[in-house]
Specification:
single chain, seven-stranded mixed β-sheet, 14 strands, binds zinc ion
Length: 308
Amino acid sequence: MRVRVLGSAAGGGFPQWNCGCDNCRGVRAGTLKASPRTQESIAVSADGAAWFLVNASPEIRQQIESFSGLWPHEPRHSPIAGILLTNGDMDHCLGLLSLRESYPLTVYATESVRRGFSEGNVLYRTLERFPGQVTWVALQPGVEQPLLIDGDRPSGLAVTAVATPGKRPLHLEGPGTPPPVPEDNVGLVIRPPGTRGGLAYFAAAAGRTAAVDQVVGAADCVFWDGTFWSSDELIAAGLGTRRAEEMAHWPVGGDGGSLAWLSRAPARRKILIPVNNTNPLLRDDSAQRAAVTAAGVEVAHDGLEFEL
Ligand SMILES: [Zn+2]
């Protein structure tokens, strides 16, 4: 399986348009040892021809153009055979609306994520301009489901969704919205059908469960939520009032952080994604980056590509 990181930043990207934190100012000025990053998405393929995107970021157009594997081969064509959504956050779904140029899309998502995006959303009509413009495939947590090309051809890959501690997107919180359900936020295991191990992708995780432990412990490669280094990261920077946990992200560092747990996973590669623009892990020469590297864990960057 080929894996390509299209974007590795958390919501807002790095730098973020309205952010003047030390990291964002430094990367703009070129005074920081850090690379700009677009918002989180990866692409996977068994054969290098048909690709599946995990999440559709607001920067999807730029991300497609940044990787020749996703370029059309014919006057109207796309190698993108499907898009898998891990939750309904805008940073994961907004890109779907950018793919509105009358081309059929297949989107794999849980029922609650599908409803949250497509129901009561007048902009979604842009993806309903002809019958079959979007084919939704309902992800059933715990069930291995084939990833198909054009609805019937095997791609050589299958996906298993894993309900993961998280939360509903901000725009679906508050009075009159449906109650949260476990399938609002999932991790994904992607691998050839009927095999073990594979790629485990958990880009938003407030914590772990027995099921999460099991797939992370068996995976060959783990992508794990690297949004925040510390619980009070936004508060300390004067940028917000909520702790990482209140935003459903398990911080990487500190006592009880995810790093100690992740470092024990036997996977060949363990990669933090996404990374928020305030996170000291973005600085190539930070002490936090050195600690992560020493623990055998990588920090995702745009363009990272490897064979699994
Ligand atoms: Zn910033």
